[in-house]
Amino acid sequence: DAGVIQSPRHEVTEMGQEVTLRCKPISGHNSLFWYRQTMMRGLELLIYFNNNVPIDDSGMPEDRFSAKMPNASFSTLKIQPSEPRDSAVYFCASSSQRLATNEKLFFGSGTQLSVL
Amino acid sequence: KNEVEQSPQNLTAQEGEFITINCSYSVGISALHWLQQHPGGGIVSLFMLSSGKKKHGRLIATINIQEKHSSLHITASHPRDSAVYICAVTSPYNTDKLIFGTGTRLQVFP
Fold it and tell me: DSSP assignment of chain A, as one string?
């Protein structure tokens, strides 16, 4: 299996532009997580899905952030409009079961986002 | 005070040394994860623990639920072990949410 695939690896954009990050989880995994990593705050959960349904989006910082999972093999995280403080590394991760059931997380390579 | 504290923040070692990284947490948990983040940025899940001890190769992870403490040990350390090691615990309110420590940066020199 190719693992969790994220695209793009790097994104540089100007303030006010729309940014879309993409994630393909491992086939057969039914939990998908979006995390953000910054120097100041470390890793933080933004939102997660179970069986394509958003379960908890309380970590999404503002209405500018939205996430979708239209099917079991694809998810997007969108920022509109983007701001410089959104600059961070965004990770997608998946697991075959809910984390409470003794399962490891598998991370994508991350998207390094820079908003100028 | 952070809910998950790691020590030390930075650690340097000579190849072959035994290394211990500590994680203390202040919330009730159902599981604790150890993650490894390589210099290139990729994150790998090393262990998921809910009790006792787990071993994988030269890595050993232990947890003491009563003391709210976990340790990650690396035996016979090697330069390729150089990475940031991150402890994360499941939220007491939502076991799918991980609360992350700030990480321990390890450098092993030949």
Answer: ----EEE-SEEEE-TT--EEEEEEPPTT--EEEEEEEETTTEEEEEEEEETTEEEE-TT--STTEEEEEEETTEEEEEESS--GGG-EEEEEEEESS-GGGT---EE---EEEEE-
- Answer yes or no: are the C-beta atoms of B38 and B83 closer than 8 Å: yes
Question: Which residue of A89, A105, A109, A114 is the best one to mutate when testing the B interface, meaning the one whose CB has the most B CBs within 10 A?
Answer: A105
Residue B74 one-letter amino acid: I
- pLDDT tens-digit series, residues A8-43: 999 999 999 999 999 999 999 989 999 999 988 899
Nearest to A109 among B42, B48, B97 (CB): B42
Chain A residues with CB under 8 Å of a chain B CB are 31, 42-45, 48, 50, 55-56, 59, 89, 91, 93, 98-100, 102-107, 109-110, 112
Neighbours of A64 (CB within 10 A): 15
Print burial letters for B13-24: b (CB count within 10 Å at least 16), e (below 16).
beeeeebebebb
Average confidence (pLDDT) over B70-87 = 97
Tokens 């998207």 appear where? A111
- C-alpha span between B50 and B30 (Å, rounded): 6
Q: How far is CA B82 from CA A53, B15, B79, B108, in A?
A: 37, 10, 6, 6
Selected residue with higher pLDDT from B28 and A93: A93
